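Structure (tokenized):
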């Protein structure tokens, strides 16, 4: 889980956040102030629980891996397809449509609804921000504006389905 803290940057430009909330944690991970110890503990508990749930999914779905092996592999690193296959984390290698075709066959269904999750902040948006900055008279402010327009709220960094 990650978020940006732009409080000092905003202050340099005379931007002050006004928050009206119905509870003490409604603005948890606010980009305009430091996180409190209580907020950090709440979010760490959420992350720890989500991590255990993630380990459970892998452990229950992979008969070839012990729970301790899953913990060893699930340390946040990124694996290539070949590495994941060699480690027994996946059943095979293929393209997106190969997976859809395989699921159709395995489930015995014709059409499947496929939902794709996309990130709205990545290389493309960074490139766009840089181009906009280059042609903008106030490059710093344009960059800040572009950055703040992106969804910077906390979000889990993996997805899976039961």
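Design, position by position:
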């Amino acid at each position: 889980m990650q978020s940006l803290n732009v409080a000092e940057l905003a202050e340099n430009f005379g931007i002050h956040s006004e928050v009206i909330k119905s509870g003490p944690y409604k603005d948890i991970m606010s980009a305009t102030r430091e996180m409190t110890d209580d907020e950090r503990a709440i979010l760490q508990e959420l992350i720890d629980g989500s991590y255990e749930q993630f380990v459970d999914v892998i452990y229950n779905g992979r008969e070839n891996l012990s729970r301790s092996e899953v913990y060893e592999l699930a340390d946040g690193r990124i694996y290539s397809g070949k590495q994941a296959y060699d480690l027994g984390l996946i059943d095979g290698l293929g393209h997106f449509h190969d997976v859809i075709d395989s699921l159709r066959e395995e489930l015995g269904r014709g059409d499947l609804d496929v939902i794709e999750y996309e990130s709205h902040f990545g290389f493309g948006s960074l490139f766009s921000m840089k181009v906009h900055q280059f042609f903008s008279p106030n490059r710093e402010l344009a960059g800040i504006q572009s950055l703040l327009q992106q969804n910077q709220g906390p979000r889990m960094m993996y997805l899976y389905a039961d």
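Reviewer-requested clarification: Helices lie at 7-12, 37-61, 67-73, 81-86, 96-107, 123-135, 139-149. Residues 102 and 108 are 10 Å apart (CA to CA).
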